[in-house]
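Risk register update: the risk of archive-format incompatibility is retired. Evidence:
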Amino acid sequence: MGLEVPNTLTSLDVVFYTLTIASVAFFSFGLILTRQYHWLSYSIYGVMMIVLVAALDGSLAYLAGGDRWYMTDAPLLAGSLTAAFGFAHVAYRLEPGHWLYRAKSLNLVSAVIMAALFPAYALVPDYLPSLVPLYATLNTGMLLMWAAQIFPPMTWTQLTPAQHRFTIIWPVFTALAAVGTYAVHFIGPGFEPATLNGVNRMLFIFHLGHLLVFVCISVLEQIRARVDAERSAAEAGQAAAEAALALEISERDFEKARALASDRSRQLANASHDLKQPIATLRRVVEEHAAHDEGHHAQRLRDAIEYLDQLAGTYLSAGNEALDQSLADGEIAVDQSGRELVELNLIFETVLALFREEAQTVGVMLCARTTDIEFLVHPLALTRAVSNLVSNALAHSQGKKILLCARHKKGAVRVEIHDNGKGMAPEDLVQAMHVRQRGSNSEGSGLGLAIVEAQATEQGWQFDLKSNPGRGTSAYLTIPA
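Archived output:
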């Protein structure tokens, strides 16, 4: 540190301070634009470092009108405050969960010690020969504080392993350069004030540049992660909307097919009824003619009329009893409550077809265990419930496999949907069952499970959800058989 107030600022001084102040200002402006306000502590640290360098090289004394206090006392004050803020800043920026977080208390104690240096100077008697002990303590503290600045980036989870390694390499070279420089200055012949000022500025540029660069990288990684999460949520929402639309179209087509089948059944019954009278008349005419002709032709006419009569009677009966019995293999039997005799495999195949493409896109194996279960159920309600559970697992489980299966259980059929995803904590499991309530790590709408529970209640089913954190979630629909 020079002891004389400089007569003027050189062009290099002007360029240095212009560039450093502008860099910190643009850095701060970028943080404000991106609403990353919690990173502005690095801007404060950068301003304090600029003031410290100005106090050390005499630029602050020159701007203050040549007051020698800025050459003797101001560097100690600026240095102690900067070192104190630097240690406190390290404690603040360490992310919990990393083993380095245990150094938080040590950094806070160091911050208190550094802050006490300037008040200690005010209590020093006038006969103290020099400020060397205080400055020695300050220089040692500053070097330790600089070294400690590498710890926060090492705890930032948004940085990659390669970036973590580089956060160590760059400051290590800077610290070695600083130690070597000050060792030569204080132990060896020493440097001229202008040379020492240039070294201080160079070390400052490397140190502050390292911090600001990795803050920018961290901010960009956070923004990228948020954008990716929003894009994934949008894609999942779009996929869910497309699946819901496909399900709605399938339901509409199914209703149309049922209505058409019912209409055709009524038409067939009506036609069969209309045929009964002409057949009876034809039978009487044939019998009258058969009294005069007992040959082969009469018997053939009798057989044909009998066949037509039986056929018409069969279709008439089938049309009238369509709600009580099955027409043929593959047709649907419906009871008085509207439940239909359904093969569970058909429900599973429908759901697999709806979500197969989405599952392949996100790398999930979606499969169903073959079953021979056939029972009375409202097929649309069951399809909707299973679809909601599969959609929920695809969107939130983060697993690699979703399995559909079923089994008989005490006079009921239990439909099961299992995933091997991240699972849910007990409190999140309870919260997820309420309408528009989401778990702590969820970004969904909070409707899927509540819809399934409402459907189960309406249909008289039992809906259960079990989950183990880290092992996956299982959903159960128990349907009376």
